[in-house]
Amino acid sequence: MTLVIAHRGASKVEKENTIAAFTRALEMGADWVEFDVRRAACGTPVVHHDANVADGRFIYETAAKDLPDYVSSLEDVVEACGPMGVNIEIKSDLEEPDYDDDHRVVDSVVAIARQIPRDKVLITSFDMSAINRSHDVDDSVPTGFLTSDDLGAEVAVGRASAHGHVAVNPWVEIVTQRWVTTAHDAGLKVYSWTCDDPKRMKELISFGVDGIITNTPDVLRKIVG
Description:
Number of strands: 9
CATH architecture: Alpha-Beta Barrel
Order of helices and strands: EHEEHEHEHEHEHEHEH
Number of helices: 8
Oligomer: single chain
Radius of gyration: 16 Å
Distance between the termini: 9 Å
Strand content: 15-25%
CATH class: Alpha Beta
Largest sheet: 8 strands, parallel, barrel
CATH topology: TIM Barrel
Number of domains: 1
């Protein structure tokens, strides 16, 4: 059955990437939640999409205790998610000020992720070197390659497989039946993002995707059943 994965929690009705959003996602029937992680100045991994908070301060220059109350630590978010699985996206972009060649945040993320049942956690990133680092730290923690580019299924799947990753998370606009079949033939799971269109949800399900990341988990829940 296709997993219902709430994108940054129930982000249509609550502030994204907050404990309130994750709690609401559970109430809406989400199987998993997806969220973004960055490293605070003190080294604590915190859940936030952008490199800076609303007042302009950069997260990597601010201690976790000094961030706004809605920015929670990864540890607190995992606890709040309860029975749901967690797709932890590590933000790692060369164009952003907090980019770290050493991927120090990965070590902290893996330390928390390894405490979660393996069928309830996935560490992902657009940065292959970040998920490779995760795999090197603890290859028992599942990892996946995020892609928004139309690299072609063979290239994206090949890159993920070559480094021992177990999933690919392709942008919804590039997913085809061939894409899904290619990934499955290589033994990889497919979790597509971000889909809020019921018609497209049904098409993705017909392709056999393993999960759909959505801002409307309640809508997808009704379709999946």
